[in-house]
Design a protein that fits this description.
heterotrimer; A alpha/beta; B mainly alpha; C alpha/beta; A: alpha/beta; eight-stranded mixed sheet; four-stranded antiparallel sheet; 11 helices; 12 strands; C: alpha/beta; Rossmann fold; 2 domains; globular
Chain lengths: 318, 312, 347
């Protein structure tokens, strides 16, 4: 039994222009101590999945099908009170905008202690504070910065503080939504290495959401490629990178400039992703796909299996 | 090169359809969900209809002329009747036709004073914000000096000095005293716009300062300016009414404030509710309707409501 | 490409310096000057794509803004086709500015939300009084088509909020290219875009260079993007040039410890996932060395206290066309066993 299991999850938003099917029939699972990268362009539904995993969907968003179980518990059936107990303790999140995740008028150390105390009300304050010191050492923040305010931190330090906060209650799963997007490469690299080693040390499951396939390649064991609300290819990092099957995955890999290897032409994906409002019969990548056939437009593609872990949602891939 | 000839499939808005219409439709959509705004709009249309109808009574019979028409059969103020739906004043003038004429004056005063103060405020605010430095400091100190002057008191003193002021002078004075608030807001907006890359882009494109201010910044502050205009209308109507009530209005116009002054001066304050209440109510309701409209527009302009629902 | 035989540069920066006065927060004492650029000298050749690579705060954006005249240098001189920018006035200045255009990082911010695509792209024509309404419209439509917005009539009458990020960035390129500039500064043109869009933008830039012989100065934080697009690269750190040279040389044989650190930090996948690391960073950072030393001293693993803290290294040629600002550039560790991958692109 996997630690986190998402099966046939569908999520829709009510919008002025109609029901927007942001996530459509997405399934994946995450084992203890493994990491799964969800990769896709903006609007593909990856952040929505992250929000659903945390029970933080915006008010106009609703799960319209499927389920999420964490260690056997059905997350969709939780009441607000139950969510409050579970969130941060079992499943924590590292937000996209680390800059805004910290309260500007409270000392960083105290904020983290506060988070611990909220979830362990009977813990003495001094113990919480000493726990924060431990967390600072873990994520590589100097202890003398405990009493600083967020604005005195650099971008990378803030990101580390947010990671410390996510680790504060020893969660089983961490959802990291573009945790390094705003950072410089060198700091990003340090954070990624840090994340990797912390994950190993604490045996945490990580859902790593990113638009950057190269970052995910650094950190994750498994990858799920998302396009227009659907998972289109999932497999181990090695499988997806060296034997990509789905035309979108190939196109995505082909549009990233690499640091090594022959200087090959990038192949941009022409066109734009479809709007997710209304009926979308057939394959969603069809309009931009180099190998699509006649049937692609009309009938939804079927999953094909290439190995124990490698699945592709495409009828025309070999 | 593949990108050159690639067909771009977009399901976005069909081409050539005026985006202004789209935007207007979208704004109306947000606005129409606001019950207070709708109430304001309905009230306002009633008043607008009243202002238009003010031309009708004098055409029916000269005795319904709001200023000079006197009913020969009436010698003092009488209550509502079939002949005078809202009664007459102490000279036998029809209150309904006065009320209608007052609506017209209120609109005229409110809208023109507000418009002038907005034009002043927007220009000064944009110039101050864009130019910065000494120009900014001087203009903003001037704005602060004017802002702390009590408008009503100064206008009262001026009219005491120069005798009776005519209605356009009053409008002008209100405008001159009411721009600073607007200009501060527009200046702040301009400051934030000034550092946006599209202004840099305009500079690189070779646009002059004047062009940047009026072509690139102004369209972005106009919505805010219109919002402030609705609030300024309210202020202008109240100031004019207060002036007229205190006896410093233009004696040749029939405004609601003037009507109230006549009620008070002739001692009918507690004798003729049919005369006292209509102008009083109208002042409150018209300012209220502009205020409600402004609040609703405020919401329409709120970027948080404007965002595409459902960021994925 | 022959790097030794350099044609006359189209644009030269000679000893450009720029300082910002930070407004020192209350209680922290007086304001201290922040060095944005320190004695930068670079030359840009006709029709080359030149990468200016650095992290945020390195001064690379300031450099781009100086080139297009949005900022003024405190010191130094800019020379476009033999004419110094500082001496120009009036019409000559306007002519200079026409030759040098820029596209900005954020396509959501660089187009005026209240102005239609047509008017935005036509703006440079209007302000420079070129053509009349009809010829401008034709020119705009042709330019939109050239950046891949086809059919152009579909886009010209829209407003920025109706376009995707990739489409907006194309509009921004169209606006910059409509005057046919000699030099185009592209300031992180893809960092706000998804991968599929950024590859499109890269292709358009390549095409612009090919078709119009425009010199493109690509400002970027990504060595991978710079490698893909650029002929030459300059690596900049805190306002100082660290290394300048042909793109392939910089990537496959970096001689400055900072360049090496950047290469270490760039996420790798596919062919080069298993590259060895240079490991040139020290952690934690050293205390500052004082103004005289090397700009990279605080983070440099190779630095010698005696020399690097006291004396800033000069940018000097290691091989013709490959300049490095490091006292120990000859001794920097060579790429190790993984050299095959790095050198793969050299041929």
């Amino acid at each position: 039994m996997a630690l986190l299991e998402v099966h046939n999850l569908s999520i829709a938003y009510r919008t002025k222009r109609g029901l927007l099917q942001a996530v459509d029939n997405v399934s994946f699972s995450l084992e203890q101590g493994r990491s799964l990268g969800l990769v896709g362009e903006s609007g593909c539904g990856k952040t929505t999945i992250g929000m659903a995993l945390m029970g933080l969907l915006p008010r106009n968003g609703r799960v319209t099908g499927g389920g999420i179980t964490l260690a056997g518990r059905d997350l969709l059936a939780l009441t607000r009170q139950q969510w409050r107990e579970l969130r941060w303790r079992e499943i924590a999140m590292i937000f996209q905008a680390a800059m805004n995740a910290l309260n500007p008028v409270q000392r960083v150390g105290e904020q983290i202690a506060e988070a611990i105390l909220t979830h362990n009300p009977q813990m003495p304050r001094a113990q919480a504070l000493s726990q924060v010191e431990g967390l600072y050492q873990l994520v590589g923040l100097p202890l003398e910065r405990l009493r600083d305010y967020p604005h005195q931190y650099s971008g990378g330090m803030k990101q580390r503080a947010v990671i410390a906060m996510a680790l504060a209650c020893n969660p089983k799963v961490i959802v990291a939504d573009e945790p390094t997007t705003a950072l410089d490469v060198i700091v990003q690299d340090q954070i990624l290495q840090e994340t990797k080693s912390l994950q190993k040390e604490f045996n945490i499951g990580i859902i790593f959401i990113s638009h950057d396939i190269s970052i995910v390649a650094e950190v994750c064991h498994h990858i799920g490629i998302m396009y227009a609300g659907q998972m289109v290819e999932t497999g181990s990092v090695a499988e997806v990178f060296s034997q990509a099957r789905h035309p979108y995955t190939r196109a995505l890999l082909g549009s990233f400039p690499a640091l090594g290897g022959a200087r090959r032409r990038l192949s941009p994906i022409a066109g734009e992703p479809p709007r997710l409002i209304g009926q979308l019969p057939g394959c969603r990548f069809c309009a931009r796909c180099p190998v699509s056939g006649h049937s692609c437009k009309l009938e939804p593609p079927q999953w094909r299996q290439f190995s124990d872990s490698h699945f592709v949602l495409c009828d025309h891939c070999e | 090169m593949t990108t050159n000839s690639e067909p771009i499939t977009t399901a976005a808005a069909p081409p050539r359809r005026s985006p202004w219409r789209d935007r207007l439709a979208e704004n109306w959509h947000i606005f129409s969900r606001n019950p207070l705004g709708l109430a304001g709009l309905i009230l306002l249309s009633i008043f607008a209809a009243m202002a238009l109808l003010s031309f009708v009574p004098p055409m029916i019979d000269p005795m319904y002329h709001p200023m000079t028409g006197v009913d020969p059969l009436v010698l003092h103020s009488v209550g509502p009747s079939a002949r005078h739906w809202l009664g007459t004043d102490f000279m036998g003038r029809d209150i309904l036709s006065q009320l209608l004429a007052g609506t017209r004056v209120a609109f005229m005063v409110g809208v023109s004073a507000a418009f002038m103060s907005i034009v002043l405020g927007v220009s000064i605010g944009m110039v101050a914000g864009y130019a910065g430095g000494i120009v900014d400091t001087l203009l903003m100190r001037l704005a602060e000096i004017i802002m702390v002057l009590p408008t009503l008191l100064v206008v009262l003193m001026l009219s005491a000095l120069f005798g009776k002021l005519d209605i356009w002078t009053i409008v002008l004075l209100i405008a001159l005293f009411r721009w600073p608030g607007v200009s501060r807001v527009i200046r702040a907006q301009t400051l934030s716009l000034k550092s946006r890359p599209f202004i840099d882009a305009a500079r690189v494109a070779g646009a002059s300062h004047t062009r940047i201010v009026f072509r690139h910044i102004m369209p972005n502050v106009l919505p805010l300016a219109f919002l402030y205009m609705t609030f300024r209308v309210t202020a202008a109507i109240i100031i004019e009414a207060a002036l007229a009530f205190l006896g410093f209005g233009d004696p040749s116009t029939v405004s609601w404030g003037m009507m109230l002054q006549w009620v008070w001066k002739t001692g009918h304050m507690f004798q003729a509710p049919y005369w006292l209440f209509p102008p009083g109510l109208c002042i409150s309701l018209l300012t209220l309707s502009f205020y409600l409209l402004g609040r609703a527009m405020d919401e329409v302009l709120d970027p948080r409501l404007r965002e595409e629902n459902g960021t994925v | 490409m022959d790097q030794t035989l350099s044609p006359a540069p189209i644009l030269e920066l000679r000893g450009i310096s720029k300082h910002y006065r930070s407004r020192g927060r209350s209680g922290r004492g007086g304001g201290q000057d922040v060095v944005a650029l320190d004695q930068i000298s670079l030359d840009f050749r006709p029709a080359e794509i030149f990468g200016l690579v650095g992290e945020s705060g390195s001064g690379k954006t300031t450099c781009g803004r100086l080139i297009v005249g949005l900022e003024k240098a405190d010191q130094g001189e800019m020379v476009l086709q033999g004419r110094s920018y500082g001496t120009l006035k009036g019409q000559a200045l306007r002519d200079y500015r026409r030759q040098v255009q820029i596209i900005f990082q954020d396509p959501y911010q660089s187009l005026n939300p209240q102005i239609s695509i047509l008017d935005s792209v036509a703006e440079p024509l209007v302000t420079n009084r070129i053509g009349d309404g009809k010829s401008r419209l034709e020119k705009v439509l042709a330019t939109l088509k050239a950046v891949g917005l086809a059919p152009p009539e579909d886009y010209a009458y829209r407003f920025p909020h109706q376009l995707s990020g990739g489409q907006r960035q194309r509009v921004a390129i169209a606006r910059a290219m409509i005057l046919g500039p000699k030099v185009l500064v592209a300031d992180e043109p893809t960092s706000m875009l998804d991968a599929s869009y950024s590859a499109q933008i890269f292709d358009i830039l390549l095409e612009v260079r090919q078709r119009l012989d425009t010199t493109i100065i690509l400002i970027t934080h990504s060595l991978a993007a710079a490698r893909y697009l650029c002929d030459r690269i300059a690596v900049i750190y805190r306002g100082h040039l660290m290394e300048v040279g042909p793109a392939e040389t910089i990537i496959s044989n970096p001689r400055h410890p900072y360049t090496q650190a950047l290469i270490d930090a760039t996420p790798k996948f596919g062919d080069c996932a298993s590259l060895p690391r240079y490991g040139t960073l020290v952690s934690p950072e050293r205390p500052a060395s004082g103004a005289a030393g090397c700009a990279f001293f605080r983070r440099c693993g190779l630095a010698h206290l005696a020399r690097c803290a006291r004396q800033a290294p000069e940018l000097r040629p290691l091989t013709p066309g490959h300049l490095v600002a490091c006292h120990y550039s000859e001794e920097s560790p060579d790429p190790e066993t993984g050299a095959t991958c790095r050198l793969g692109g050299m041929s």
